[in-house]
Amino acid sequence: MGFLDFVSELCDFDWPPIHRKIKKKQLQTVEIEVKMDYEGCERRVKKSVEGMKGVTQVEVNPKQSKLTVVGYVDPHKVLERVRHRTGKKVEFWPYVPYDVVPHPYAPGAYDKKAPPGYVRNVLQDPQAGELARASSFEVKYTTAFSDENPNACIIM
After folding, report:
1. Per-residue pLDDT tens over the stretch 51-92
2. CA 127, CA 92: separation in Å to the nearest integer?
3. Peptide bond preceding 16: is omega within 30 degrees of 0, i.e. cis?
4. In a 3-state reduction of DSSP, which class is residue 84?
5. What is the pTM of this model?
6. Would you put residue 84 in left (φ > 0), alpha (ψ -120 to 50) or beta?
7. I need a labelling partner for 135 at 20 to 30 A (CA). Which of 10, 47, 49, 117 fits?
């Protein structure tokens, strides 16, 4: 806002004052991992976010321990609300489909606890293995001397 705009607003005597544009939140899908042992847990987790302002859809998948919330909400507020209302350990859904990751079976990406067809999201996790995020150039040279590569260079 420039100086002239500021001065013009000071001299403006319209009442009620002009309302400023309020930023509207965008429609988002928030995926959260929360452990659910029984149906009561599932119901409690679902009720914890159903009453939130801006929530349009809530989906609970107890087999994958996954809560999906769709609406005009802040992801961190949803996470805190579930944590506060249920008293459970919750975190953002750390998995992505395995075909999204360049090297899904590299150390750091593959997780035994992941649901079938999913691996850890190593593209956004800085602590994940470097080989999982490696480019094809790096992979070519690391697998050149691998025992698993039948065309590898063998030096005896």
Report:
1. 899 999 999 999 888 999 999 999 999 999 999 999 999 988
2. 16
3. yes
4. helix
5. 0.62
6. alpha
7. 117
